[in-house]
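hey can u check if this looks right to u? its 329 residues, i copy pasted from the old doc so theres a chance i mangled smth
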Amino acid sequence: MKILMYSIYAFDKPFIENATHGKLEFEYTNQPLNEDTVKLAEGFESISIFTTDNASDIVLEKLYLCGVRYIALRSVGSDNVDLKKARALGIKVANVPAYSPYSVAEHAVTLLLALNRKIILGQKLMQMGDYRLDHLVGFDLHGKKVGIIGTGKIGGAFAKIMHGFGCQILACDPEENTELTQKIDITYTTLEEVCKSSDVISVHCPLNPETKYMFNKKSFNLMKKGVIFINTARGTVVNTEDLIDALKVGHIGAVGLDVYEKEKKIFFTNHITKKMGDHLYTILRSFPNVLITGHQGFLTNEALEGIARTTIANFNAWTYNGTSENELN
């Protein structure tokens, strides 16, 4: 099977190359998949794409004409793929349903601790020679209520860590994680109750029609004044304009984001010599109580190894069996 890997980066290419390939033949491009680059897939039966790639209905039609019949995602999320169109065309799509959940969960905890204990501000003041502590007061996490939106593998891992800190865990998920409830004390409730009661809220749900803009003016207004809000899931779960408004009036204490709703034009590329054209993002990152990382929550050796291993396994399954257990459509 001949495969084109779109959006290949220096951080993931070595893991792909080191995985067991079987009878697979790879070619790489650092360009993202879109209407302009779809022509690169000419002559390839399969492609692999990342979260930054665009597999819309138009792109899928062009891929089909190029001869592409299989698409392997190097991610859990598939919101960048028109699965209905892929199904109609007979293009099989598979994802990486799970990799190290600790990578993203631990990153969410990192954002939380850095914000609560004013680590970034403290470093800036020290570099200036200002060792006063007046602006660096945080709070004990022990005994605080932590609301978790989505208790799958990543949300469950985050819940266990927070339980270890001695926090009270509230959760919102249409499907309760019974394995998790057997290990730690966790109370499932509504989104409204999580917003009203939590001192910390961390988002770990997938993006779908039900979760798009789940966090908006209404939900932010329900939150406790001073709440710390963390999102390491998907950017479009949060309405950025409403988040900025809540920050402007001082209702939210701090925000930690590893994702942003318009991140595809910003993250994973070098903008040092470029003017930032996203007005909303410029405003968002200007707040001193907002900490943004560039979708790096998954970036651990263990997670990258897992993603590469499953991606290769999907291609091998298609090569030998014509089907993969991780197919989404």
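The chain is about 35% helix and 15% strand.
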